[in-house]
Write a structure and sequence with these properties.
The protein has 124 residues and is mainly α. It contains six helices and no strands. It is elongated and about 45 Å long.
Length: 124
């Protein structure tokens, strides 16, 4: 639990969410799921010492791929590229590595997400 006031915790969570995703998100009120996400997950968990944001993103990508959530992987791959945490070669290597641990079908989905995200990035 944080030593911050609820307002400070909300601001810290919103700031970290913006850093993680690479864009600003609205401050929703009266939404319990959003409140827990911002005030706990991003204000507390993503701000803990010991792991870098890149470390956390790498772990998150592994979990997302293992659970078969390609739509969430697309958000995370795009954010990783925007934040300079991984380059194209590193992202491709993540897919190759994960294929051996979470299975070819799941890693194939990630590879497709990476290719799609890189193609969109080239068009910018």
């Amino acid at each position: 639990m944080s030593d911050q006031s609820p307002s400070e915790q909300r601001q810290a969570g919103l700031k970290k969410m913006s850093e993680v995703y690479g864009f600003d998100l609205p401050n929703l009120t009266d939404d319990p799921f959003f409140e827990v996400t911002v005030d706990h997950l991003f204000a507390d968990i993503w701000n803990r010492p010991g792991l870098t944001m890149r470390d956390r993103r790498l772990l998150l990508l592994g979990v997302i791929v293992a659970q078969g959530h390609a739509e969430i992987a697309e958000i995370q791959v795009g954010a990783a590229l925007r934040n300079g945490e991984f380059d194209a070669d590193q992202l491709r290597e993540i897919a190759v590595f994960l294929a051996h641990y979470v299975g070819w079908p799941a890693a194939t989905k990630l590879d497709g997400v990476i290719r799609k995200t890189l193609a969109k990035d080239k068009k910018k």
